[in-house]
Amino acid sequence: MLEYENEMFLSSMQEDGLTIAAKGLSMEKVILNMLKVYCDPGNLVLMLGCSDTEEQYFRGELEKDGCTYPPKKITTDVSTGERERVYREGGVLYITTRILVVDMLMERIPISLITGIIVTKAHRIMDSAQDSFILRLYRQKNKEGFIKAFSASPVSFSAGFCQVERVMKNLFIRHLHLWPRFQKTVATSLEVAQPEVVELHLQLTTKMKEIQTAVLEIISFTVKEVKRLNPHLLTEVLTVENTISKSFHKILQQELNPIWHQLSGKTRQLIQDLKTLRNLLVYLTQYDCITFYNLIAALRTAEMAINSSSGWVLLDSAETLFLASKERVFASIEPSKPKQARTENNKEKSDIEENPKWTIVSEILDEIKAEVKEYATDGSKDTVLIITKDDRTAGQVQDYLEIGAKALLNRMFNKVLGEKYGRREEGKQKEVKNKGQGKNSSAAPPVKNNTVRIVGKDSISGENKESEINLVIRGLDSGSYLENRALLHDIKPRFILLYDSDVTFVRQIEVYQANNPNLKTRVYFLMYKGSVEEQAYLTVIRREKEAFEKLIKDKATMVIPEDREGKTVDNDQLSRDPQKPSQILLESQNITSRKGGLNKPLVQSKVIVDMREFRSELPSLLHKRGIDIDPITLEVGDYILTPEICVERKSVSDLIGSLNNGRLYNQATSMSRFYERPMLLIEFDDKGSFSFQGKYYLSKDIQYSDIMAKLQLLTIHFPKLRILWSPSPHATAELFYELKQGRDQPDPKTAATLGVDIIDDFNSDKYNPQVRDFLAKLPGITTKNIFCILNNCENLLDLVQYTEEDLAKMLGSHQAAHQLYTALHDKIEVPETSTNQSKQNKKPVFKSRFKSKKKT
Predict the structure, then answer these.
(1) Does the predicted model carry a pTM greater than 0.85?
(2) Could you give the dihedral angle defined by the CA atoms of residues 149, 155, 161 and 164, in that order, rounded to the nearest 10 degrees?
(3) SS3 28
(4) Kindly report the CA angle at 799 between 798 and 804, in degrees rounded to 5?
């Protein structure tokens, strides 16, 4: 380990805390060494927040080091009994948050025996209700175990008010450890052995400069329009410089989410246009002119100008953008010439603009081969690694090195624009495609005489013995940061070409060189001078530096209470009693003021929750209000508050989908049959509007009136169904608490046995659905007694022949029997009226007539 890695590891082990490090500083190595300490049957350590790639990486590295007790993973495939056995065996466990919450509530895992919890990606703790719930359950019953949190995203803590303090509060952590790139120990460790860096500042072509200027002007216009329409928005976030950043839209969305429903449709379209325009700037420097022109042509349509944009396509800058993009492909073609003339002109001249980075890559490879040939003595080949942003760019670089620029551009022209403008001559060299999985077909001899291998996709290798280097091309987006780091240590490249810049990978190169001081690495840094690409790279570094500076100031000024960790005295986060102190005192003395000081037994409030509901925040909030949670797989309802009250929770999106596919009708039928007070809870987002208005919830093809009309039909068909409207999960928890006051607690065994498929002889599937629906609409018929009628009557004629007494025995209610018998046997007679009588005076006359029972 490097010096700063060792110091980071020791500080994390000595005390519980939140460790925030800059991207690429190998925090995963610190966590790996921590796992080596705790991978023992005498410990029980839980890992939260790890992705599948990270879990595989930690497991593989531990097995390489000879770890005899590697981490285990618990998923839904592991049975309950097996999970309890794994918990007792100890060690390090990867476990899904939903399973862990349920096992903690059901006391299947010994919480008091847990050694500690390691939280990765701690910046997401505010968005993950389950992680916060787990930590609160853990700290309530375990005052000795540790909590150690890690994050490699300092920018995430710069948004919002006191973000780092709120994260530390949810983590039950008092200490904050910061490791920026400019930290003294980090800088000293990396400066011991640094790679040789060759910066190559390329010049944009004339047309590329025109396009970049035009797009920036459109972005400036769009930003001004957003500010003009919304003067209350934060101006420090909404700037032209920030719009070119990769994380701009994520940060902007966080700022706008609370007021998104208040924004006009034009404002939302302007924000979407900013994202489109930023993509144009990225594609300009990353892809070829043909791909870029094809994208621009898709934006220049009448539909786009009217419906899909805020009107920027009508600006003069947009016209410049369209013309310059076309001239990069058709520089010598006159639009007035016919198609045949244009085709012939295409064959005469190769006027397609070549990507400037291609030429530089070719020159660098020739320089490397000459150097290797001059100084190589043992006949070994050095590895050259070319880093691109994604696999598409990697494929273009590979094709360029194999068939040359002219053949590649002509092939792309024929593929994208050939049908419209005529095909072009691809050259003498023909591409041989790789056919068959696992077989590498022999391609034509590469123009640049290299052995090319793309990592992350199907490789195409050209075997050539006059070749001096092994060339590997890697798209960063094709794998995780751990896979990119592992690639450096596996192939140990002597030369690295950064075709596209990435801050995380640049730091990984620094760490790689510091760990291999004897390997003299040379890095070629390719970047367009004065371009948006350069500015975006510098903006990422600047924002990270500013985020760390803010965190340093916050650390120096923040006031942290002594009971923050909850190890000695329970803090507010661990409190579960929502009542007032006076009420708590009275109940602690087993006295109630409402009944004149009489003693009353204390009964713990309980709610039965469906297992699938633990993806939401509501179970955590109910538990925090002092209500015990009993997780069970329910077939009817989501929450059972009392023996009579069953609640089906729906978000707005779930409500729309359930109304459209009819699922809500079946759910309401089941709740109405088994519970006296079925309820439908419609829960809105606490960051959005508490209404259906606007386009925030409903799309253009779904109207507010459509949803309300379906809800009205639902309430008419199910008179017992009550609809609850809640603006947020916090309001729902308070509503449930009030509904449970003074009522009995639900029975888990009874709730678990109720289901549509447990009707036995009264199963509705064996009855005629038309007759059943008709019968359900008759007076006196309910969802509870309808199956009594269906089970005892062969047809409707048999039902008519029963007396009122027979119906009362069958239905179990004289009132229901009277209503049904009257509806079947009463006759309605309408007397004849003169034609001169007004329609307002027409009134029906009801005359009852008893019909004797007859057999047919």
Answers:
(1) no
(2) 20
(3) helix
(4) 125
